[in-house]
Please model this.
Amino acid sequence: MTKVVLITGSSGGIGSALVKVYSEAGFFVIGLDKIQNDNHNDDSDYSYINIDLLDFAKNKNYREEKVKEIVGIFPATIGEFVLVNNAAEQIIKPLSEISWNDWEMSLAVNTVAPFFFAQSFREHLSASPGHVINITSIHAKLTKSNFTCYATSKAALEAVTRSLALELSPIGVSVNAVAPAAISTKMLKSGFNDVPEKYRKLNDYHPSKSIGSPEDVAVFVKSISDHRSGFLTGSVLEFNGGIGGKLHDPDS
Model:
């Protein structure tokens, strides 16, 4: 009986850490992304499938083809099945510049695709100890200017999480979400290349006195899928170094 995990956005910072953590735990990992991370090429327990999540959300024929491709590499018997919806599109624009395409991309990738993954693999999830874990964001509740599309799509993903839990929990599938704050991915760090002092300031602003690492997130996500009680479902678990409870005083 093989443990299987599907990870969307498997080539990014958090996605790569998820692949590593689940691989080390003996899972057969299927990574889904638009680009392949060469770091995983030598992993015998890892398979990569190229996927466009905008098409997956919009195009029924494309979605069915990709689901068939994924199922085609499943082991004969599955002892545990985990789906981690990690991929995300982060569009940062002021209100005046946001287009319909920005909305479509954000909602399709961040909200609709995770729903269709849960729908498409409902039977596999219910046939074994099944877990759906959606990676949302602190922006779902606490956001800032220019993050309208991203924040809205992540808030909607939290609503999807609660709704899926109502329908999947009765058949033995737990559905939860993890909402990270700042995580030290390459994407985050690149925004501070010219202002390293601001990165240090952000680090120190967290009550934990640290920005989270992709490995921290991955280990936490794995711990959720280790939880055997179906009572943990429909939850949004914050992972933010305490910053979600901190008021900002401009004078401090």
Notes: The radius of gyration is 18 Å. The chain has a mean pLDDT of 94. The CA atoms of residues 72 and 178 lie 29 Å apart.
